[in-house]
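Example S7 (structure tokens).
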């Protein structure tokens, strides 16, 4: 049995695969693994074969602008191959898994870059842009104000403020919303596979969550529902139950929302970002607003705050400035308390006297000097000893 034959048999036998995962495995096997490793006998596959395969993938050109495959794509292909070979190892078809010892290229998670004024000026001059970027709060507000009359405004507003994924927003149904209590329940997502729009579970089990909605977002969604009802009434159709649909009320493809977003960003001459970067921006803006990192992680549907902090949270300039000022203030206060440090104290000025004569300092009265016989003290015994020795009275 060859590598290609086993991998196709392995995918066909996995009945409990999500549609998106099955499509990803099938693409990796047919496009990448099959043409280069498919004819090698399964028992003769070596570490050298895999290392040469990964190196060739890294040099492979894509159909998009002639760029090469990203390390992330090569890493995902390696994961598919390793999972298939692990299954062959459990079946007893091979004695060891060479993918465990191979060296695929390391995947580095890109950190989101904030579109500062200097970076925007550099982009307008050279056309160079970061791979992952987020807007500031001002830029986000400018975009939402510019597209307020667009049909998909409510979707962009929801993603920008609450951080929904594209498939989660498109898969949202009116029965998943509780606008009276301000809650949004994420239970499904929409994906396009083989030309069909499929409704399936979210990306991960932790993605099933309840998202709190602010009052402004609730008003936006209510206005969107009235608009959707008027459009369906004009078309003579019945709404499908989804929140974001076509004019006739039928479900949207996730790609439509992405293409619409890119056109609107270019139309209003804003720094370019991806639709998924609105999700990055929602996490960063929530952090800037003082929201706890665990709350942000739950809002995004992550299983760990480490993933949220490492990938989806960008420290915005305003937040970084506050942190810098707080650190400098802490060091300055500690320096004033240090031994030998010169303390600078400022006396509060006296309030002005309306009479113009000024306020005199009040002096405490002197205590009267006591007269009469002396009062015995602790040194009385010492006084008697001094009198006996010298013949003179010693004052205690």
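Recovered sequence:
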């Amino acid at each position: 049995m060859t590598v290609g034959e086993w991998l196709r048999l392995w995918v066909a036998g996995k009945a409990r695969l999500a549609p998106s995962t099955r499509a990803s495995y099938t693409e990796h096997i047919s496009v990448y693994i099959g043409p280069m490793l498919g004819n090698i006998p399964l028992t003769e596959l070596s570490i050298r074969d895999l290392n040469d395969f990964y190196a060739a993938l890294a040099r492979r050109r894509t159909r998009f602008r002639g760029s090469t495959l990203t390390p992330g794509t090569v890493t995902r292909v390696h994961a598919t191959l390793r999972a298939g070979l692990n299954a062959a190892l459990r079946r007893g078809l091979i004695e060891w898994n060479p993918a465990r010892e191979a060296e695929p290229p390391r995947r580095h998670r890109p950190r989101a870059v904030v579109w500062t004024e200097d970076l925007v000026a550099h982009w307008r001059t050279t056309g160079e842009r970061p791979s992952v970027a987020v807007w500031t709060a001002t830029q986000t507000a400018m975009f939402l104000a510019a597209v307020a009359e667009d049909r998909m405004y409510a979707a962009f507003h929801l993603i920008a403020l609450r951080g929904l994924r594209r498939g989660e927003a498109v898969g949202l149904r009116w029965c998943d919303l509780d606008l009276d209590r301000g809650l949004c329940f994420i239970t499904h997502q929409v994906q396009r596979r083989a030309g069909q729009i499929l409704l399936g579970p979210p990306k991960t089990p932790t993605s099933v969550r309840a998202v709190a909605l602010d009052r402004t977002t609730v008003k936006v969604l209510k206005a969107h529902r009235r608009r959707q009802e008027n459009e369906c009434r004009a078309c003579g159709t019945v709404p499908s139950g989804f929140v974001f649909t076509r004019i006739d009320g039928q479900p949207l493809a996730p790609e439509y929302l992405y293409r619409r977003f890119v056109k609107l960003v270019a139309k209003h001459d804003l720094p370019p970002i991806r639709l998924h970067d609105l999700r990055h921006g929602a996490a960063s803006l929530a952090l800037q607003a003082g929201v706890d990192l665990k709350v942000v992680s739950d809002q995004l549907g992550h299983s760990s705050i480490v993933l949220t902090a490492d990938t989806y949270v960008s420290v915005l300039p305003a937040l970084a400035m506050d942190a810098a000022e707080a650190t400098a203030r802490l060091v300055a206060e500690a320096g004033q308390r240090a031994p030998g440090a010169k303390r600078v104290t400022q006396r509060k000025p006296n309030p002005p006297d309306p009479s113009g004569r000024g306020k005199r300092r009040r002096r405490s009265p002197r205590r009267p000097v006591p007269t009469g016989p002396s009062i015995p003290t602790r040194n009385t015994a010492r006084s008697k000893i001094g009198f006996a020795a010298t013949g003179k009275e010693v004052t205690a």
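Notes on this example. The first strand starts at residue 113 and ends at 114.
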